[in-house]
Amino acid sequence: SQAxxxxxxxxxxxxxxxxxxxxxxxxxxxxxxxxxxxxxxxxFFRGGELVDSDQFVEAVxxxxxxxxxxxxxxxxGTVGIGTIEAGLPxxxxxxxxxxxxxxxxxxxxxxxxxxxxxxxxxxxxxxGSDYGLVTxxxxxxxxxxxxxxxxxxxxxxxxxxxxxxxTAFIPGEEIYIALSTGVIDGAVxxxxxxxxxxxxxxxxxxxxxxxLLNPGWTESVLINPDSWEKMSTEQQKIVQTxxxxxxxxxxxxxxxGNQRLIDEGTIFQFxxxxxxxxxxxxxxxxxxxEAEAARSERNARAxxxxxxxxxxxxxxxx
Amino acid sequence: MSKIxxxxxxxxxxxxxxxxxxxxxxxxxxxxxxxxxxxxxxFNAPTVWGHELATMFFGALAILAGSYTLLHRQHxxxxxxxxLFPVRVQALCDVIVxxxxxxxxxxxxxxxxxxxxxxxxxxxxxxSSIWRPMVWPVKTTIPVAVGFLILQSIAELVRALARLxxxxxxxxxxxxxxQGA
Amino acid sequence: xxxLDPLAITAIMFSSMIILMVMGAPLAWALMISGMGxxxxxxxxxxxxxxxxxxxxxxxxxxxxxxxxxxxxxLVLERSGITDDLFEMxxxxxxxxxxxxxVGTILICALIAAMAGVSGAATVSLGIIALPxxxxxxxxxxxxxxxxxxxxxxxFLIPPSVLMIVYAFxxxxxxxxxxxxxxxxxxxxxxxxxxxxxxxxxxxxxLGPAAPVEDRFxxxxxxxxxxxxISPGILVTxxxxxxxxxxxxxxxxxxxxxxGALIIAAMHGRLNWNLLRYVMLSxxxxxxxxxxxxxxxxxxxxxxxxxxxxxxxxxSIDAFSLSPYVVILIMLFSFxxxxxxxxxxxxxxxxxxxxxxxxxxxxxxTTWFAVLFILSMxxxxxxxxxxxxxFYMRSVAPKSITIVDIYHSALPYVGLxxxxxxxxxxxxxxxxxxxxxxx
Lengths: 318, 181, 439
Ligand code: NA
Ligand code: NA
Description:
A: alpha/beta; five-stranded mixed beta sheet; 45% helix; 16% strand; B: mainly alpha; 75% helix; elongated
């Protein structure tokens, strides 16, 4: 039981990750406490503990929690730009490119505007890692998938459906059992690290890089505007800096974990989709870009940035 | 028939009707899931809507059943000590509990109305599957259900107040319980 | 917003909840009122929003959609006439054995448990059918009632299980894995009960007399009576087979089970509009009861954790430098103590969100802990003063059986349940072997 100082700011921060980021979160808490001379205290909550991840924007806006660390694809129904923010198939191929699009080509500004409308402030951008397909049987091409049922959500499911690959939605907790019994034959859920954590490798031993988008998702950190305003400029700077470090730590942890598992090559048999198939998938995803652009004027501006970038990189022609 | 009896008869009838209408959702969930299983296992063509529609039916059933459950006094309580109190004290306890309950539910109702309205206003859709259905219909069941629960709670409060003040009235619920038994 | 230390928060939240419950408030009301009060006083207006988000996240959960369906299935089976047939079979097959009807009752309970997700189905239907038959045969009334209540409680341990579904929802476990983990402990417990009945009736045959000579059946009659196993056998195989064989997820299997139960009722000529309406309405009432507790309890525990009060538990573990097994024992003791006064779902919602992260951090298998919890809840169904199976039994038992008889009859079985619990604590493989094998 510690006495409360009038100038102590307590911030409830909620992530969508589970226990796996405990150490990184605890480092964040310590760094912020130290840098602010104890004037900022972070109380950290894991995925699902206080608020469901798809309710983060609402919860931050209403002040139930102060800071949320989530992914835009959880809430495109609320914040229309969420799907684009999380990552459209074919939008970027490596983290440097993604970082450049968000920070230097103006994407983050457009996104921040969308969040502001919903009453929350965007203060951090993180980048995920590999996002691949696990299957019970080895696959060498898209054709092999035709008679498999794949668990996928959102944009990936839309692309797979275009190739007549049946998709199904199974909650994360049930993927293991569903794969082991054969309710589904494969899943697109995360990278090798995430699959290892769910012990998916015990029931589906084949990991295929579909080469559509890398990093496979981006993460955002949102703060309640009142909680932000009540901090001094110096405190704001501390929070911003340390959150950036936290997001980088998460990204590095994922990247190192994935690379280690790929190098070891023991838990999965790794393969990559043939280039033709990847190109086919990328082409099939262009209608998704168009559909997203058609959702709003703001989305159209965001898609324009992505198209300009892809053209500059020579991935799409006129 | 006293005014209280007439009021209770009307309110109980309303909750009874809501419960009966809601109970059809049970068959709805069974039907949707069976269809999904057949479509996926036999025809290898899972629907895009099966799981989410079943979940929506379930959500509506769960929240809308609240007032019906209260009408039939099926909300679990541990009355080991409560039963030892004299009738008047029991009535006083009920008055306190249901007054506080109505207050809490009123706050809940206000938030739920805003919640559903915002969802409708922006045309919020769900992103768990590529079906991407609108979510305001299921979100709207929350204020509706909480509203009906407040109405039934008021009836429970009226009953408790009548018992506390010793007003005699015929409780329509007793009649029905006898018929049911 | 008031800043309080965790101990004060814990004291305020739990004591206000308990006072409300003593005042006869339904559990859901007690949790909502004390949660809302604490949220407003200590969290500020932002905390109130948690009630709404708890409601929506409980409603928007596919795993929970199986809940009403397994309840539906249990209610249909209770009225389908299946129990009459099974008891007639037991009567013919095992009547000659001292205590045979008791052993048979446990077998029927295990079979019903494998079809239904709740414990009421077996307790009520066997209370109506098996209890009068056993009493007529001169069975000791306490042995007979205890057997039915303990057997009925197997409904939660042997899959499918409504309690496991809600547990999985709260603790983010896999439903299928929990189902698999419950089966062996459930069968083990059934075996312990049967051994107990046989031993006691061997020592004192007056407790469960064998059938008189004129009431015995030919081998052909016995063989013929086995046909009653066919329809329940098919239903059990179908539901569990659908899960294990990959036809359906555990949630979808509930729909298959509900439809199968309706077919069985139709085969017995019991399916009619009245039965369907009764089942639909009862399912609605029970779902309303469970889900409103779920909403209120998720809200309450989120407020509690949001205030940082769960630190008090982790702190005291550190402060007393308790060994992990001592912590587990304390948790099990708390389940048992709460089980005397509270409903199983209430205990689940109040303790599990707080306990599971601790159990995980201590490095224990959380599936194993889930089975320990379910085993403890079986005792909660039998321990006076508040126990569902005691109430179910009271509602169907003849007047000659007093409430004291019912309380008394449950005690030896509570002892056997604790024995079963101790075995699973000592040998986790009893629970973990099957899920390891299957998945
Ligand atoms: Na069961
Ligand atoms: Na009990």
